[in-house]
């Protein structure tokens, strides 16, 4: 769930620090063996990198698109839940005939509000009964404790109470049908939310990208150590600096209001990396031409 405008580096670093450190030491070892000990056989063609990089891009693009589609569908469903809940409350308060000294319509609206909170707890696998005990009658709570799907049980209670209004003559068949349609919409939204919650992405779409990222990271220094004419750790240092620059720039833009010092630092670091890389390549070309 997206809960912030930015993702703190302090939250990510504990999960990636060991891998980044191990990868840096590995790159450094490859660079030293190739440049200082003349292990020329360590250099490989760039063809495997291109093939693995192409496959990796396909899997990563699929994962990103699938994750965003799931997030957006869930956001749309929760928005539909809010709208349908508001519609149900309006229908109960305006379509059902009032009875003097009887606030059962407001009790029905409170039950519907409790349903939304119960669905939230159900999707998060939290216990909803501490909240329900404060807002619902003891008989309703006792009934719900015997239900495996508590939100579905609350929908049944809502339908029972609406039927009581119909049997008492406070709703005609047309208005009863409209309110029951709102309950059906709530049930459909709940089912769709449960589907998203209980059906994760296939495991192969997590395992294969992880495998390809690891393989690509291991092969990258072998492919760059000869073709670029620079030690692999230098290439990774430039890449890391470039990534840091883009993250600083993105962080500055994501704030309200924008933090221009982070945007400026990110752009400066990005252009510095591009300049250093271009100068290094130009130096290599001149060295080969003059040599």
List descriptors:
single chain; 291 residues; mainly alpha; de novo design (two linked rop proteins); 10 helices; 0% strand
Explain this structure:
With 291 residues, the chain is an all-alpha fold. The protein has 2 domains: 1-42 and 228-291; 72-198, de novo design (two linked rop proteins) (Up-down Bundle), CATH 1.20.1440. The protein is 80% helix and 0% strand. The protein contains 10 helices and no strands. The chain has helices spanning 9-35, 47-95, 104-124, 129-135, 138-145, 150-167, 173-198, 204-227, 232-254, 260-290. Helix 2 packs antiparallel against helix 7 (173-198), helix 6 packs antiparallel against helix 7 and helix 9 packs antiparallel against helix 10 (260-290). The chain is elongated and about 100 Å long. The two termini are 57 Å apart. 19% of the residues are buried.
How many domains in all?
Answer: 2
The count of strands amounts to: 0
CATH architectural arrangement of the largest domain: Up-down Bundle
Gross geometry: elongated
The value of Rg in angstroms is 30 Å
How far is the first residue's CA from the last residue's CA? 57 Å
Number of helices: 10
The largest β sheet comes out as: none
How much of the sequence is in beta strands?
Answer: under 5%
CATH class of the largest domain: Mainly Alpha
The portion of residues assigned to helices is over 70%
Structural class: mainly alpha
Mean pLDDT comes to: 83
Order of helices and strands: HHHHHHHHHH
């Amino acid at each position: 769930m997206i809960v912030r405008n930015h993702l703190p580096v302090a939250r990510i670093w504990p999960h990636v620090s060991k891998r980044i450190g191990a990868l840096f030491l590995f790159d450094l070892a490859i660079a030293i063996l190739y440049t200082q000990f003349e292990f020329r056989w360590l250099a490989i063609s760039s063809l495997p990198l291109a093939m693995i990089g192409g496959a990796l891009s396909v899997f990563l693009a699929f994962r990103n698109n699938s994750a965003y589609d799931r997030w957006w569908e869930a956001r749309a469903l929760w928005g539909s839940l809010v709208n349908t809940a508001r519609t149900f409350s309006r229908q109960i308060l305006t379509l059902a005939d009032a009875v003097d000294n009887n606030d059962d319509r407001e009790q029905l609206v409170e039950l519907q509000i409790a349903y939304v909170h119960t669905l939230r707890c159900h999707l998060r696998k939290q216990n909803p009964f501490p909240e329900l005990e404060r807002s619902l009658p003891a008989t309703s709570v006792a009934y719900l404790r015997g239900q495996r799907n508590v939100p579905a049980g609350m929908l049944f209670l809502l339908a029972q109470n609406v039927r009581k209004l119909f049997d008492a003559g406070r709703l005609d068949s047309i208005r009863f049908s409209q309110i029951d349609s709102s309950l059906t919409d709530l049930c459909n939204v709940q089912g769709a939310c449960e589907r998203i919650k209980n059906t994760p992405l296939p495991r192969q779409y997590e395992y294969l990208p992880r495998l390809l990222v690891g393989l690509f990271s291991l092969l990258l220094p072998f492919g760059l150590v000869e073709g670029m004419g620079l030690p692999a750790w230098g290439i990774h240092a430039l890449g890391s600096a470039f990534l840091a620059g883009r993250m600083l720039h993105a962080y500055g833009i994501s704030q309200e209001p924008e933090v221009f010092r982070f945007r400026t630092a990110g752009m400066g670091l990005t252009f510095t990396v591009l300049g250093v890389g271009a100068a290094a390549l130009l130096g290599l070309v001149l060295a080969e031409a003059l040599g």
